[in-house]
Write a structure and sequence with these properties.
3 helices; alpha+beta; single chain; seven-stranded mixed sheet
């Protein structure tokens, strides 16, 4: 069975700085039509910075949609058609002041494919050098370090819920356990 849904019409309902919201009419595989709300997002990166002592660097930041402070990997959105590797280098430097001598691409994940086009690219950063951080002017962060195994524990017990942090951590754990 062909599962493809075909766009009949597409209307831009909202155009923001980060996202665009479309309201589409789609033809379903059975010939009927349905509304589809689609959030266009430029994509982003997440970086797990692992030092030679087995410690990771994370950031705490307030996440307005959830009205709480979350502990996450350094991350950020792509600027337009920016190369995701360059974005990973930029975000790691901006948020933590770290520079990586080795940056390993771990693949990408589709953040919420039911309605959003965001693709998150994951990286492992090693051979780290510390410089001064320089977050964006509207970005307020606390930089935290902890043993990698503690991060894995917090991911597994549900303390850390952020999807990009969970996925990247588990990918790195699988990579390191080989």
């Amino acid at each position: 069975m062909d599962l493809t849904e075909r766009t009949i019409t597409s209307e831009t309902v909202f155009q923001g700085k980060i996202v665009t919201l479309l309201l589409d009419q789609a033809q379903l595989p059975n010939g009927k039509t349905a509304e589809r709300e689609v959030v266009l997002h430029p994509g982003g990166v997440a970086v797990l910075a692992l030092d030679q002592d087995g410690k990771v660097t994370l950031v705490q930041q307030y996440r307005y949609p959830f009205h709480q402070v979350l502990l996450e990997l350094p991350a950020g959105k792509l600027d337009g058609a920016e190369d995701h590797r360059l974005a990973a280098v930029r975000e790691l430097s901006e948020e933590t002041g770290l520079e990586a001598g080795e940056l390993t691409y771990l693949g990408c994940l589709l953040a919420s494919p039911g309605f959003c086009t965001e693709r998150l690219h994951m990286y492992l950063a090693r051979d780290l050098r510390r410089r001064a951080s320089h977050p964006d002017e509207d970005e307020f962060l606390n930089v935290i370090t902890m043993p990698f195994e503690e991060l894995v524990r917090q991911v597994m017990d549900g303390t850390i819920e952020d999807a990009k942090t969970v996925a990247t951590t588990l990918k790195v754990k699988a990579l390191l356990d080989l």
